[in-house]
Amino acid sequence: MFSNEIADDVKTLPAGGAVDVFDASGAFVGRGYANPRSLISVRIVSRRRKEDIDSPAFLADRLREALAYRTAIYPDRTAMRLVHAEGDGLPGLVIDRYGDVLVAQITTLGIEVRKEALRQAITEVFAPKGVVLRSDTRMRDLEGMTGDEGVWWGDVPERIAVDENGVKFLVDPQGSQKTGHFFDQAENRRYAATLSRGRNVLDLYCNTGGFGLHAAKAGAEHVTCVDIAESNVARVRENAIENGVGDKVEAVCSEGKEFLEKAVADGRRFGVVMVDPPAFAKSRKVANQAIRGYRDVNALALLLVTEGGFLVTSSCSYHVQEDRFVGAVAEAADKAGKRLRIVRRGEQSPDHPVLPAVPESRYLKSYVFEVRS
Questions:
Q1: Over residues 192-212, mean pLDDT
Q2: Which of 35, 139, 159, 279 would be 317's cystine partner, CB 3.0–4.6 Å?
Q3: What is the pTM of this model?
């Protein structure tokens, strides 16, 4: 609930405390936690008026629900997004699982002030060997909090092996981006790999090689992985060796658009080009600028795709709506002189559940296009 939707003086709300919300007629709406310093002043967490949202028992119940859901959709996986904020009824809490180690991100004051209760609930439900905090996002600034990183408790190794669709990734739970591994693209990576057999593949904005290593394991002839961070490039090489495909994976440190421009100038061609950039629009006011960015990057990428090859392109910017993203790719095709057919439309994997009433919870768009001249 935004501050301008509340009749009471927002400044009187208890910082992080529980509040009851009523509509204009006096009917009960729900219970939530408040933050007088945030534009989002109340986040509803329960529709039950007498529910004790401060108790470890409440948090444990939500964690059990989250675990039961993941067990149902991924009965054999030991690495995944375990708690997905609003998608699991816990706004401001993200937990990723890496076997016996958890990586948690806390981005709301409501969760922060319940941190000790959360620790008790996590211990009761998951019994992890170690938990890392990676609460370093700008969302904490908007909630009036500083960053919080490091081992929360327990033993946390420097590297953890993750198996995703039969591909191994070595994850650094304390030094990787965000919470360590981008599980949201798991299903899209699996499909894109099926198109890669016998082809020359480009994985642009590769991070630690998610798309590219899937392609290499699926039988790609050669894979070029490109990322601007030298640490990510080093991790790609490490992961390629771990998967036995070090001889067919080339890791390049470069800014994505710069690599594309040089590759076009050099006349390089790829049977599959995968484009998975970081969010170009982290707020609504820069959405138009982001659209231009997606158009320009995909136009260059399309120039590299061989006749009848495939473009796999994604946007994780919620503020770039799906129709506008597809429109940007269509404009890119016109600019590049290419004709596209949609092969597949994908989104975030189901361990990142979407709530119909919270459109912001559905943020990832991923498309596969066949490319013709």
A1: 96
A2: 279
A3: 0.92
